[in-house]
Each structure stands twice: as C-alpha cells, then as structure tokens.
Amino acid sequence: xxxxxxxxxxxxxSAKAGEAIVIKTLISHPMESGQRKDKQGNPIPxxxxxxxxxxxxxEMVLDATLEPAVSTNPYVEFxxxxxxxxxxxxxxxxxxxxxxxTTEAITVS
Amino acid sequence: xxxxxxTALHAAVDEALAKFTGGAAVGEGGITLSTPEIAENGNxxxxxxxxPGAVAIMLLAEGNPSxxxxxxxxxPLAASQSATTRIRLAGTQRVIAVAKMADGSFVQAANEVKVxxxxxxx
Lengths: 109, 122
Fold this sequence. Notes:
A: mainly beta; three-stranded antiparallel sheet; B: three-stranded antiparallel sheet; globular
C-alpha cells in the first residue's frame, strides 16, 4: 500500500430528485508512472490507481479506467442524478491490490 | 525492421483506437474536448470532455511514451456524459477524445496543447 493514501470527495448534502449534481473526487496517491528512474538510474516500478468507480445504492454512476498519464493525486469530476435519498460509494483500485473506499450520503427531496 | 519514432507513436495511437472502436469508423461532432492552449506544467493539465449520449469516452495523449490516459464509462445514474480530470503530458502534443455513443457509433475531437515543461520522466 502506498503511504498516506487519502480519498476526498465533495458531494452536495441535498438535492432534488433527478437534479444534476456535481461530484468532485481526489485521492492522494503518487501515481508512479513506471517511466521514471531513481538517482542510480534504476527504473522506479509503476504503481498507480488503475480504476475508480462511483456507485449509488448499487447502481453505477461512473466507472473509470486510469493509466499512468493521469496526474499525481488523481482528480475526477463528474455529474450524477439520483432518484431518492441514499449513499454514494466511491472505490479506488491500486496496482498493488489495495482498495480504498469512502461513502457520502445525500438527502433527496 | 526498426520503426521510425513517429511511426511507432502513431502505431500505438492506432492500436489504442482500434481496441476501443473495434475498427469502426470514427466521425466528428457531438463531442467537446476542453484543454488549455498552453500548459506551463505538463505534470498536471486540466482536461474536460463531454459527449451527450455517450456510453464511454476514452482520452489519448498522442505524444506520451504510452498514449493511453483514461476511459470514462458512464452508468445509468450519470447526469451527463462528461468528466474532468488532470493529466500528464510529456511535451507539446495533441490530446484526443473518442466517444462511443449509445447507438454504437464513434466520434472524436482533438486539441493541441503546448507544454512548457514536460510531465513525464524525471
């Protein structure tokens, strides 16, 4: 597991049913590309977040595949619409098999 | 046979495109790609893409060591088929966005981004 991996998401606390809401997500992660070399000239092994998903009550909002060309601390912003109150689940998948999760509840009126 | 770098570069882009489209023709229109004209720092270049009615959008960076950047697959609860992220660009190059539409057709858009300091290698 990479050090200090911390997911952060911003979701509105409330929304109207079917309203487009903006979700901003970021996870602190080096996204080591595998292209860099250390001071001795040895390649630094690739270690990235290779997949990010956002689900709402088991239904998919966004499923993203990430490559080494995504920047350090990968940021993804997108829009969701939800029919009722519930919980978003955000999941990041690391090359080393680690899985990072966070959830965020929203009240829909 | 030794390929010229430019040929190898385009071969990798063509390969990524073919994998995504299955060899289908790629049209234009219906997809918007927003990138800065000039990126002072290639380590973190903001990119937004939008293609109403798309099921998936793939981003490619033509001039990177490997052209793949990311693919967004939109689920039933996506309010729009759009997303924003930050990417690495090794140098001045074209960024390409290709969308797979709900009817199985494909459209693309491409923007040139001038990069002052490259964002790959170290």
